[in-house]
Amino acid sequence: MLGSMRGENGAKAVARSFPLLPISAAGATLPYLVLGVLGSSAYVVFPAPAYLAIHNIVELGSVVVAFSIFGIGWFARTPANGAGTLILATTFAAVGGFDLFHALSFPGMPAFFTPSNTNKGILFWEAARLTSATGLAAIAFIPREAPAIKKARWIAGPVIIVFFCAVSVAILRFEPFLPPMFVEGSGLTLLKKSLEYLAIVIFVIALLGLARRPVGDEDESGTILLSAIILSIASEFSFTLYRSAYDSYNLLGHLFKLASYLLLYRATFMVAVSAPYRRLGESREDLRRENEARQKSEESLAKINRELTVIHEINRGIVRIENEQNLLDEACRILCASGGYKMAWVGYALSDEGKSVKPISSAGDVAGYLDSLAISWGDGPSGMGPTGMAIRTGTRRYVQNFESDPAMRPWLDQAIPRGYRSSIALPLKTKSETLGALTVYAGIAEAFTPAEISLLEELADDLAFGIGALRARVRNQAAEDEIRDALREKEVLLRELHHRTRNSMQVISSMISLEEDRLSTEADRRIFESVVMRIQAMALVHQRLYQGGDLSKIDLKGYIRSLCELVRESGEGHGEAVAFDFSDMDEVDVLIDTAVPLGLVLNELLSNTFNHAFPEGRQGLLRISLHRGKDSLVHLGFADDGVGFDGGHNPRSLGKTGFMLIFDIVTLQLGGKAECTTGGGTSWSISFPENRYEARV
Fold this sequence. Notes:
Elements: H1 7-17, H2 20-38, H3 48-75, H4 82-105, H5 118-140, H6 152-174, E1 182-183, E2 187-188, H7 190-211, H8 221-238, H9 248-320, H10 324-337, E3 343-349, E4 357-364, H11 386-393, E5 397-399, H12 412-415, E6 422-429, E7 434-442, H13 450-516, H14 522-547, E8 553-555, H15 556-569, E9 578-585, E10 589-591, H16 592-613, E11 620-628, E12 633-640, H17 651-654, H18 657-669, E13 673-678, E14 682-689
Parallel strand pairs: 9-11
Antiparallel strand pairs: 1-2, 3-4, 3-7, 5-6, 6-7, 8-10, 11-12, 12-14, 13-14
């Protein structure tokens, strides 16, 4: 009914309020034990005037308390009070009225509508007791948190007024006709005792109903309510024992009733007045704790966002910066500027005798701190700090409070005056080694949360990766420079080789030309001239390689044009009367291994054309075509409109040295084939694979 259990607070309330129950039980039984033991010596019948004064005071107090219960429960209702509070309030509105009428009807009081007498007072007493017992029993068996229905007061109010008026009118009107409750000199009648025992039974039912609920509610109202019912039962029991309207048992019953009313008032006040304020205070406390938790969460989120910003900026630096020192400087700067740390520095592990740690970069409020450090990554005292341990173990190490952690004792005098209170050291590890450590200092103790530590570890891994990548880039650049220098030297050598080869061929050609003057026959001179042209064709290959940008390949189109001009300028045959058509030639590059034999073939074809195709100065046209086919073959076409040679003859069958040389070179050296047709000129079709040889430069 009145209140609710709330975890730990409820458990504390049990310990605080539980003694009230045994105290109430002891208080309800002790007077009867005293009266039973002492007997007639303790039993007193008070003088009527004195007892009337005491009775009126006690009853007036009971009436005031009853109406106070009604007032608090009725006017101080809250949604948390529910139906139980409303039932208690309306019940005691009627109870207060019945008690007031009981006091006014007590023997010795002036007439109240009808003459005052014991029977009339008892009837109003019984009405009050049965009403309170029934109301408490109803409260005991409705759900504790049952809410009052809407407009319940406007239903309960008229109902209780009608009930009170009906009972009161019935007692005042029919009291003379009702059986007596008390006979002076004889005591209580059976009807009186039966009504008292009925009230006791109803109170016991209410007690059992409330006992089903946990004892010790947070606001103690449940315990107080149980104690009030115990005292009410004791009060009713007392009114089954009295023999005079002015004796000890009658007074004891009134006192027990007043005590039970006071307890009920206390319970109602706690539920209707104290509990809302307590819940308000609890809500404010919950709100304060929630605000603190949210503030901590926001601070933690802000720190994580700062760490993510730091990681993002440092990763940008890893991609952008090409110098290791600049990268470390930028990482330390970002940690202090964007991460909000007091100081950050990077130290590399040296392999000297003392296994010292050398500061490489730093940022923030350094203030000469690194100059005073003597840090090692060895096993000595100077290696017990976070930085040394991080390098030695390859794991992160942190100190959350410099002043309480003995690991920082060697550096405490330097760190505290500079405002350092906590730090974390993170190893910078590559796949093969630990380079050193990144150490970050904060200006407050307990600065590093688990989430922050995880992000800083990720940052250190990224930084170590960046350092490794930069070093690998430097090594690769050095290797590339070395290879480039070697290639450049090789290129110079190859150019010199091609140049010397061409010169050597020119010398050979000149020597042959000198010997030509000694020859006596024209046939011998032609042989010598043919040899010289072949040498010139090969020399031209080396000349174009020497002059070109690629020392392994030659532009076949340009080479053919140059060779044609070279053969014509040599004065062989009637070349000056022959025109060239190079319009059907593609750009084709071939290796020197292909260009030299192909040059010999072209030299033979040109010599044959100039010497035999256009006799007696006849004008002619030579068409040369060059294409790279989809079959990975190079197709060379060579056609003139000269006189040709004897029809029907296979060039191979003629036995000419030049023809045999062409077929042999094409098939054996170039791995291709050559076909020749004649009739209205001579046409050669030569095809060969462009990838027969592999590049060697």
